[in-house]
């Protein structure tokens, strides 16, 4: 089945480009087929930074945003990713400052309390209301380029049952966006890089018959390229193979392995070069601020010991406000990489001629001990939750709005951040293996309890 909305989306964007720039401070970004485009029809590639100075909301301190923007512009960044925001706060100052610098926002809609859970996943009104509130706030800014309905919800090979709940959230937030006549801000998901789920999860998110049930874009948190690796050794060639002919935009929502310091960011040459730029729409580097995990590109001063708990601008010993000072050589290495990487992409006027031929991938079949989603099953409705029902670990969805308090588990492919909704270990550790064993044990115990009751 063809993407029935693709040709219309391309035509609408072309018409909109006739009015671009004159009435807006910054051109908006739209998803057409497998690519992002500015209003003038030029393809948009992300050169982004994960930006979460404090867990609650980094976009309310205009003065700090402006100080950071100077350094981001020096790097050549044109995007940030923010994991948590307060939708009731005033974001106009920071968002205007970023817009003036040509920097776009990709923002997560969830919080620690409203994120979709891998363990007993659910999608309820409380979650939906918060997602809507964040969209309501940020849809007003032209430099809001996309929203995430989840970050690393699936963190183990046994977590595929949560995938339909991610799509249900995307379906409902897209319907709400259109009902409110908001700009068609792309709605996507940021996935953990789990080898056992490749490429099933990626394809499932874009394969369903109704376009309303698919993501608008897919993103990957990948830490495979460490040190002076290569396109083949890192496995990026496999990521590219799996993404070839993918029908919606795909990009790296986190990257920048640090297990072999210093970080040289050699993977950027592959992502923005001939090998991958025809498929991938860029990358987000993890992360802006130096923290315990040593992924920072800048710091705001030396580590502070025994800071009083009342000082909210010093957390985990790291100051989160002030003059941004580059952490070198990492900062300069990234700056050097990005300065020589400027893919031109394709013009929308040319690309739109081929969008009618874009087709979704085949939905992955459910397999024993692997991908456990039946592609013929409908997506969950609002209020459904996933429950294990027997000792065989088979499960069903039931109508329930129970709110889980358990945070999402760890993954071996991500870094730890005070702002990231998942606590995770660095690549090369075996945290995911431990979590998988614990998950399997819990499933067995729950099943046994069900039989006993």
Task: Explain what the structure shows.
The chain is 26% helix and 16% strand. It is an alpha/beta fold and 453 residues long. The chain has a single domain (36-385), classed as TIM Barrel (Alpha-Beta Barrel). Helix 6 (200-204) links the parallel strand 7 (187-192) and strand 8 (217-221). Residues 1-24, 390-414 and 416-453 have low confidence and may be disordered. Its EC number is 2.4.1.-. Residues 1-25 form the signal peptide. One of its GO terms (cellular component) is plasma membrane. Keywords: Disulfide bond, Glycoprotein, GPI-anchor, Lipoprotein, Membrane, Signal, Transferase.
| Helical segment count | 11
Give the H and E element order. HEEEHEHEHEHEHEHEHEEEEEHHEEH
Let me know the largest β-sheet.
8 strands, parallel, barrel
- CATH superfamily label: Glycosidases
By CATH, the topology is: TIM Barrel
Strand order of the largest sheet: 3-4-5-6-7-8-9-10
Helix content: 25-40%
Secondary structure tally: strands: 16
Membrane topology: Lipid-anchor; GPI-anchor
Family: Belongs to the glycosyl hydrolase 72 family.
Pfam families: Glyco_hydro_72
EC number: 2.4.1.-
Write a brief structural summary.
The chain has 453 residues and is of the alpha/beta class. 26% of the residues lie in helices and 16% in strands. It has helices at residues 6-17, 62-75, 92-100, 125-138, 163-179, 200-204, 236-243, 267-271, 330-339, 348-351, 431-452; strands at residues 29-32, 35-38, 46-50, 79-82, 104-108, 144-151, 187-192, 217-221, 250-255, 280-285, 298-299, 314-315, 318-319, 325-326, 384-388, 395-399.
